[in-house]
Amino acid sequence: MTISGRYRTALVHYWLVGMRGGERVLESLCRLFPDADIYTNVYAASAVSPTIRRHTVRTTFVNRLPFARRLYQLYLPVMPLALEQLDLRGYQLVISSESGPAKNVIVDPEAVHLCYCHSPMRYLWDQRKEYLRDRGALSRAGIRLLFHYLRMADVTSAARVDVFIANSRFVAQRIRKYWRREAEVIPPPVDIGRFRMGMRNDGYFLWLGHLVRYKRPDIAVDAFTRSGRPLVVAGDGPERARLQRSAGRNVSFPGRVSDTEAKDLLEGCRALVFSGVEDFGIVPVEAMACGKPVIAYRRGGAKDTVEEGISGLFFDDPSPDSLDQAVRDFEDAESRFSPSVIRARAERFDESMFMERMKNAIESFMQNTGHPHA
Fold first, then answer.
1. Residue 374: its pLDDT value, please?
2. Total count of domains within the chain
3. pLDDT tens by residue, 71-80
4. Any idea of the CA torsion for 68, 69, 73, 75, to the nearest 10 degrees?
5. Do residues 59 and 138 both lie within one domain?
6. Who contacts 343 (Cβ-Cβ below 8 Å, separation ≥6)?
7. What is the distance between the alpha carbons of residues 264 and 275, in angstroms, rounded to a whole number?
8. Is residue 23 part of a domain?
9. Residue 145 and residue 77: Cα distance in Å, rounded?
10. N or C, fewer C-beta in 10 Å, the chain?
């Protein structure tokens, strides 16, 4: 499934230094537009997939600054300016992939600028207090001034976009709140075929992800330490040492795991515990692809993916007590969860569904704006 040769297309991504959720979306857009050119601030070819490397990739001047591939986030203040310098003349369709600065580009008057938004920059908006929490007084003052400038650039660049697509209703709500724009919702692609429906049940609950404060792994560690139920906390990050000090013997920390190891853990768990507020949250969908229920905090993207009583349960308060009650409710209802039904729910988020929805949305918008080659 492609939109090849119909429009001269540019894909704009904030930086390309690894393969995470945003880059997986870009990878699917590359398949949808095999002839598109890619523009980005910083490019490390060895860190991205062959699908992305097959495209012509052009960078801003940030890529030529000292140690840009390693210290790219230090150059965030100049990225809005850098993106404005890109020459996008001649492109009929520009798709920006946004959770850092990507939509700052300036396109031709007759071109269409579509922004697929993974998230407005959380450290500029709803997570600014958490980002500043552990900084010194002088550092906080400088960052506040910088963020004030970046927020103005962020809002200004939102006005340049013709149409927004959000990856979840949660992100669409934040686009409406911070940028005063409406957005269609198209969930990001998940490689469902990589996972098998796990018939194993090795008796443990699983928390899987980067161990950072905003993902709230502490809720899971505290709840399971109190109850004595086995919990595997897979992943690494700045919170790991503190969590290990507070955890009981029933909580294990295997550290950073490979994709293969993560898949094996998902296939063997009783249920996934998802205690943070994510823009979308791919891990719950991967657990569902294994036929495993999800016990999730009722906020953020999990509300788009987890169906209560069918593919999991929710807890309403970000506290160990609330999670513990949800786990007890799950144990009472565990036999009623069907792995095949859960797997079928996950298949709605397969990459093929993403590409079909994006293709339909793009062609509809291009036709409505007078581009007859759709």
1. 43
2. 2
3. 998 898 999 9
4. 20
5. yes
6. 197, 288, 289, 290, 291
7. 21
8. yes
9. 11
10. N
Q: Are residues 233 and 358 in the same domain?
A: no
The answer to whether residue 15 sits within a structural domain is: yes
Same domain, 185 and 201: no
360-369: Cβ within 8 A, 24+ apart: 361/165, 361/184, 361/186, 362/3, 362/93, 362/114, 363/3, 365/112, 365/114, 365/162, 365/163, 366/7, 366/93, 366/112, 369/112, 369/162
Pair 173, 35 in one domain: yes
Length of the chain: 374
Rounded to the nearest angstrom, the gap between the alpha carbon of residue 106 and the centroid of all alpha carbons in its chain is 25
- Asked if residue 246 and residue 179 are part of one domain, the reply reads no
Per the CB < 8 A criterion, the answer to whether 97 and 22 are in contact is yes
CA 276, 280, 286, 291: dihedral to nearest 10 degrees? 80
Q: How far apart are CA 93 and CA 113, in angstroms?
A: 6
- Give 290-331 as a DSSP string: TT--EEEESSTTHHHH--BTTTEEEESSSSHHHHHHHHHHHH
Say how far apart CA 183 and CA 171 lie, in whole Å.
9
**Residue range of the domain that includes 294:** 192-349
Whole-number pLDDT of residue 127: 73
Max mean pLDDT among 127-131, 134-138, 207-211 falls in: 207-211
Name the token pair of 207: 């928390």
Structure tokens at 283: 């891990």
**Residue 3 clears pLDDT 90, i.e. is over it:** no
Whether 227 maps to a domain, the answer reads: yes
Residue 53 has pLDDT above 80, yes or no: yes
Residue 314's Cβ-count burial label (10 Å; 0-12, 13-18, 19+) is buried
Q: Domain containing 327 — which CATH number?
A: 3.40.50.2000
